[in-house]
Design brief:
The structure is a homodimer of 439-residue chains. Chain A has 439 residues and is an alpha/beta fold. Helices cover 35% and strands 27% of the residues of chain A. Residues 320-330 of chain A have low confidence and may be disordered. Chains A and B meet through helix 1, helix 2, helix 6, strand 12 and helix 12 of A and helix 1, helix 2, helix 6, strand 12 and helix 12 of B.
């Protein structure tokens, strides 16, 4: 039985999860990959914590990981762009395979880092949707398919908050506080609630599913901060649930790539995914619509994906032959085409086409609906459904909530400007996009 | 770019789906696997149909497939146990890789056939759950996990029938007729409705998830023929949906391996899977509960899984080196341990423990519930919930429907015998198992 030497950078919850699996499932892993795993080195900035390092040498220098000839694979589990980017590049240059769970560095520097694969590859199943083997599903399980669309709940914190707002009728702030108390949201939850984390993950999905560059700046992004319990309740009346979604969709004019709240029909499987769960739905030409769900975060779940990469590398030859060639990278790396599909352009959000949910506070007087409908109609937008009802705590105004038929986002924005200029409309119009029917 | 030669046995819908993907997605596949696929031979018993064989030579002799040195991989898409078993064995002996979609032959002869892997492996993603890459998820994506349980809706025909019975309130017979009309059920639907097809697939899941032998005879099996629309309606009142499930569950005393109708809480994702869709839920120690859903049948969907195997074989080295060694099988085959885990025994159904739904027609007179409760109590079974109501079209009798707390199946059978002996109970007691809470 061959031995695979592991070097781990970072000692957070994911690293601890990895160490735990390597300890507890040693026999299982030996059987499944015909290899013995040896944690050779662990490197962390902080002092050595009270964690079983399985006999590994502990130090503070990242270089120790790839300078050690006993290390076959470097696990980059420190997160963030820097110094992770340098570590990955250096480890590859030293002929080490790399496993990373780092969505941030891939979303920004993925092209550059994957371009450095020569002797050994980078794998990164853990970077998207935690335990769910979604990257493997897209690159291998659905390898024979042209993918039309990918839609996912890929941030568990945001999904937890939306679920709590819906089920407990609490505000965004209250739900966020609850999530923090339960450890589902960080002390600084900015990246989870403003959509940045989801955009990182969607960038990776975009690169793999559509042969695109890892280009975070191409992703349109909105968070969940401005959603209200009222919006969630009105959406339910129309038969929808509101989820924070990362969505890629190939349309005639290009690729939609967007992260924002979305109204999804209640009967859709994706709408049923609650709490900190993640789910990714893939629409493709032969396999139709497939859905993959599971825990999207947490040390053990993320570690499960890191170990999946480790086993894949081992089955692909890692550890057998220390001077393995580029063929090894080809057979055990993920499929990531280095020649990008340049024929596909990401659409500006203005050019996205779909249904819209609009909620506004309007004066309670005759003819207001007609005026609102006219303002929409001026921009080619027609109304599908309407709810009008007394607004809580107001006597002069009513809530007017409507779903539009499909419209161009640019036209909706123009209509919103017109609505905001009407004296019958108070404050901001709340606008949430509706899931396209055909994804 | 290397060339991979393909030989296809059979020309049914799956083969036609494979030919179509190879034709339509030629460029995509070349990019994803760095290979050109050439269909060298197609063999079928029937006359050459009006199908584009992509230049392949057509004949009626199965031997032509593996006798041709141009063929690298034989796709066994004829189905059934024989002559598929011989073809797979002969192709392996001739040094060909094999891809099969044949659950029946694997469920019965899987051990024997996989034991013949030497130069090249067998892959069989298409044998379970159509387009869903569930075998890859279990063997690779969750490779670092000890799996506790696998529960799946793995027969689309049965699920279509149950969904139709529920949504349209029709009988089993009517729903079956509708399924046949729509092409979702075969002229002879026996294997779909009596659970045989699901048992075939569960045998494969058992082998991969629990390192067990491919032993169809170990699977307990019930079909959906005796389910009624009334059962579905009563289950809904209790908050459940009835699904036909294949279930594997590791408990303290062994492994449960069973195929039968099951009451699943309405809020479970698995309960939301409707129509011809399949879904498989996996519970494991690190990854928690993951769920994989999608189309479980159909030519294109099944072909998608066949092509996934083809790409995996190619990435693993197929076609590069015609005299590839056993290492090749190790790196590009599925993980199927040939040394079985003999410490795990499948439990007889009598020893399964869980909740039960019982429906009976009882005399409409005082004290009957007490007598029924006593009969159950005599065997250590206690009642969780009860519904009693006038039975349709009867004046002397009422429907008595109850959910039990967890009980041993053997005790439930003894209680049923006692109930059947009571003059207050008319006809057969309908008995359906309830999903364990912890899977």
């Amino acid at each position: 039985m061959k031995t695979v030497g592991i070097g781990i950078a970072g000692l957070g919850t994911v690293s601890q999860g990895v160490l735990n699996i390597l300890k507890v499932q040693q026999a299982l892993l030996a059987k499944r990959s015909n290899a013995r795993y040896e944690v050779v080195r662990v490197v962390s900035r902080t002092a050595k914590p009270d964690v079983d390092l399985l006999g590994a040498e502990f130090s503070h220098r990242l270089e120790d990981l790839y300078e050690d000839p006993q290390v076959d694979v470097v696990m980059e589990l420190i997160g963030g762009e820097s110094p992770a980017d340098q570590l990955i590049a250096d480890a590859l240059a030293a002929g080490k395979a790399v496993i990373t769970a780092n969505k941030a560095v891939l979303a920004v520097k993925g092209d550059q880092l994957l371009g450095k694969q020569s002797v050994q590859p980078i794998r990164f199943e853990a970077a998207v949707a935690g335990a769910i083997p979604i990257l493997q599903a897209i690159t291998a399980g659905l390898a024979g398919n042209a993918i039309h669309a990918v839609s996912g709940i890929i941030n568990g914190t945001a999904n937890y908050i939306l679920t709590a707002m819906e089920q407990d009728g609490v505000s965004f702030g209250e739900a966020l506080a609850a999530a923090q108390k339960l450890g589902y949201a960080e002390a600084d939850p900015t990246f989870d609630v403003d959509g940045t984390d989801a955009a990182h993950k969607l960038t990776i999905l975009m690169a793999l599913a559509f042969d695109m560059s890892f280009a975070l700046d191409q992703i349109y992004k909105e968070g969940i901060e401005s959603l209200t319990a009222e919006d969630i309740a009105f959406a339910a009346e129309f038969g929808f649930r509101i989820k924070h979604i990362g969505m890629l969709r190939r349309v005639a004019t290009g690729l939609e790539a967007r992260v924002h709240p979305l109204l999804i029909p209640q009967s859709d499987l994706l709408a049923q995914v609650d709490g900190v769960q993640n789910a990714v739905q893939v629409s493709s030409d032969s396999a139709g619509t497939t859905l993959f769900s599971g825990p999207g975060a947490g040390g053990a779940a993320t570690a499960s994906a890191v170990i999946a990469d480790l086993v894949a590398l081992t089955r692909g030859g890692l550890g057998t032959n220390p001077t393995s060639t580029a063929h090894n990278a080809a057979s055990s790396g993920m499929y990531v085409p280095l020649e990008r599909a340049n024929d596909l352009a990401v659409l500006p959000i203005d050019e996205v086409y779909g249904g819209y949910y609009l909620r506004m506070l309007v004066a309670d007087q005759p003819g207001v609906i007609a005026k609102v409908a006219q303002a929409l109609s001026n921009h080619g937008i027609s109304i599908d459904k309407v709810i009008q009802r007394p607004a809580a705590g107001r006597t002069e105004q009513v809530d007017l909530v409507l779903l539009t038929h499909d419209a161009l986002e640019r036209d909706v924005n123009l209509a919103l400007t017109e609505l905001h200029g009407m004296f019958e409309v108070s404050g901001e119009v709340s606008r949430i996009r509706v899931a396209p029917v055909n994804t």
